[in-house]
Specification:
This protein is α/β, with parallel strands linked by helices and 243 residues long. The chain has a single domain, classed as Aldolase class I (TIM Barrel, Alpha-Beta Barrel). It has 8 helices and 8 strands; from the N terminus they run βαβαβαβαβαβαβαβα. It has an 8-stranded parallel barrel with strand order 1-2-3-4-5-6-7-8, surrounded by 6 helices. The radius of gyration is 17 Å and the shape is globular.
Amino acid sequence: MMQVCLNGSRGASDGAGVPLSPQDMAESAAAAVAAGATDIHVHPKSPCGDDTLSPRVLAETLRAIRARVSVPVGVTTGAWAEPDPARRLERVREWTVLPDHASVNWHEEGAEELAAALLDRGVGVEAGLWSGTDAVARFAASPLAPRVLRVLAEVTDTSPDTAENTARELLAGIRVADARRPVLLHGEDGGAWPVLRLAGRLRLDTRVGLEDTLLLPDGEPAASNAELVAAAVVQYGWGRRSS
């Protein structure tokens, strides 16, 4: 599975290719799916360009994207979008249009309650387990672990020289914690392409997009999410091996 992460916490200052409005996200999603993406992760944005969990904005974003693509669409629930755990939980319970899945960062305060609320509403949970945090240990102790849709193995090491080793260490911890859930492995910035290539060698799900990197494998700026996805298909190795 190749997920495209359309924008993340990036904004207008990161380049014209980062989609911020629902319409631009929909256009970018459609082009990325045409390039090979099979799943979408998006950060709905307020009019000011900030990540938001607003039910109104979420509904507008999901409707716009779903009008253009038929693949699953997921959203963030990151604490930066709503720092107060109680308010974050309240916002999710107010959603009127539901995503197919939502990422929950297991190291953040209130993650367990948030994941339970999403599952109760029929939303798939991507358990975000970040390197450099206690997320793997928390997840291993969670009664919700068997119920999540997948594990997001999120490598926060941005060095192209060490990100792969960090990814292997993270995967080793995850496999001890829970070998039952599918794993989506990805890196960010300088670590994005080394970790994606590792995912290809290990035949794990992965993702790419302007949230994770603004650069193509050769170091040139990416013009769009579709361009990144097209490059990722080659880097991952599809077409050279059986799926």
